[in-house]
Amino acid sequence: SLVSPRLCAVWGEGASVTACLLSQILAGRGRTGLAALTSRYDGTPEPLLRALERLNCRSLVVALPETACALDRRADTAVLLSCGMGEAAERLMRGCDRMVVNLDDPDGVPERDCPVPVWTISERRNEADLTARNLRLLPYRTEFEAVSGTDICRLSVPLPEGLGLYPGLAAAAAALSFGVTLEESARRLHRAEPVPVGMIPLPRCSPFAAAGYFDADGGVGV
Questions:
Q1: Which residues pair with 119 in a beta bridge?
Q2: Cβ(105)–Cβ(83) under 8 Å?
Q3: Torsion of CA 163, 70, 105, 100, to 10 degrees
Q4: pLDDT digits (tens, 9 = 90+) for 152-193
C-alpha cells in the first residue's frame, strides 16, 4: 500500500551532502528516499519522488540545485543552507511548513520576513535553535557539540577538516523537525557516509540525479 511520506527539501551550497546525511538519519525511523539533483537536471523532481513513494518510503529528502524549479508539492521542512538566492528561495520558503536557516550566512533569511516558523543553526551563536560548540577538526571527520536548549550532544560527521560542520548541523536540525532526537542523529551520523553509499538506486534514473532509498537495517544502520 502507498504511504504519504514527509518531505524535506534542501537548497544551497552543500545541499547534496546535507540531504544524504539527513536521509541516513531519518532511515533509522523507516525507509527513506533520497533524490539529489545536479544543476544539469532540467526536470521537476516529482517523478523521482513519486517513484520513491511507490517503494513505501516513510520520508523523502530532495537536494535541489541553485537552478531548481519549484517543487510540485509542499515540503514539511525546507533547509536553506545559503540564502540571498532570489526567486528560487522565495518559492521554497512559501512552499513549506517550516524552515531551517543558517544564522551565520550573511544573506540569511530574517525570521520576521518568513511566512512559516524558522529553526536556526549557527556556530557559537547562542540565539540559534541549534548551535555548534567546541569544534574539533580531524583528518577524516568533523566533531562538535550540538546544543539545543538544555540538550547537548556530540556529533561526529564523516567529512574532514571542518567541512562537516554545517551539513551535519543542518541535518540534525532538520531531523529534529521530524521528531528525531540529537542522540539518535549522533548515532546515525557516526555510521553515515557523505555520498550515497549503501543506497539502493532507482532504475532508469537520470544521469544528473542520484535517487534511491536507505533502509534502517542497511549498511548504514545503527
A1: 100
A2: yes
A3: -80
A4: 999 999 999 899 999 999 999 999 999 999 999 999 999 999
How long is the chain? 222
Cell 534511491 belongs to residue: 212
| For the chain, percent of residues with pLDDT exceeding 90 | 63
Residues 6+ apart with CB under 8 A from 76: 6, 7, 8, 96, 97, 98, 177, 178
**C-alpha distances in angstroms, 160 versus 28, 36, 169, 196?**
24, 21, 15, 17
222 band by pLDDT with thresholds 50, 70 and 90? very low
Identify the pLDDT of residue 62: 96
Tell me how far apart the alpha carbons of residues 178 and 191 are, in angstroms, rounded to a whole number: 20
As a whole number, the mean pLDDT across the chain is 88
* DSSP per-residue string spanning 72-138: SS-BSEEEESS---THHHHHHHTTBS-EEEETTSTTPPPGGG-SS-EEEEEES-TTSSEEEEEEEE-
Residue 182, classed as helix, strand or coil, is: helix
* Terminal alpha carbon distance of the chain: 27
SS3 at position 208 = coil
CA distance linking residue 51 with residue 58, whole number of Å: 13
What's the pLDDT score for residue 71? 85
